[in-house]
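During data preparation, a discrete fold description was generated, as reproduced here:
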Amino acid sequence: MTFFLRTSVVISLVMLVNGLFPVSLQAQNPVGFDFLRTFVGARPSAMSGAFVSVPGDIHNLVYNPAGLAALSKRQATLTYLNHLLDFQSGFLAYAQPLSNGTFAAGLHFFDFGQFEGKDENNLDTGEFGANSVTFALAYSRTVIKNVSLGGSAKLIRFEIDNFSETAIAADLGVIFSIPSEKWNLGVAVFNLGTTTSAFIESKDKLPLNVQVGASKRLAHLPLLISGALVKFEDEGFDFRFGGEFSLTEQLFLRLGYNSVGQDQKVDTDKDRLAGVSLGLGLKVNKFDVDYSFSSFGEVGSLNRITLIGRF
């Protein structure tokens, strides 16, 4: 019983701070792998995750592996995120273009910190920790002119105290490009897989979802716009919209909106920013330094910083 109380509290906090939807600490069927919904990378986050159709970025490892085929140089990236409630998160990835495609590997880590344990009689049982790690391997290639395919395999582990839950999953995607019109169309499915071991007996479901999106670089304005429609299993549709304005060849301004922000509103003055994101990007020689701010309204906000190197 003590473990179930601990698990319920931690999972509920994870779902709450990710700003996914209102959740009760007494939820009967919490989804333990909802940390997989957390955006990765400052650039895609500043564009509110509307990234399923934006190729040529190392973060395609997470948002649509098909986009990795557009990389022309080796890249490595590191992102740090100080999450709500002082949860700590990091993302590390490397991508290597090959003669017949692009290979990438990434590690996404969450440290949910220490919690005060209670038993069914509300008596202290000592502190316990919780963390998660996701390791992904991806491959992408252009199969015919202007059409790229990609896939990734993921190993996921969620640990609470001395108990753990593991899963294996795959992401699959395709990107269609129309170079003459500077359009890209992307389709991807995420978290196709199964939970291989449970904390005790009941296995949590993976957040299976499908995304369809389009992006376009405007002809007479230094602006990239992108939109995506997202459908999670057993949930309604959400939409994401983002833009990247090239202020100079080295400086970029990014804005975005995620309709999930509507579910984060609790009738306070901060509601107007729920779902809004923004950020800056700076290119310095072979390096990019990106920053993003994402608002969850009254719940709080997230700040990410990302460093990308090209070699």
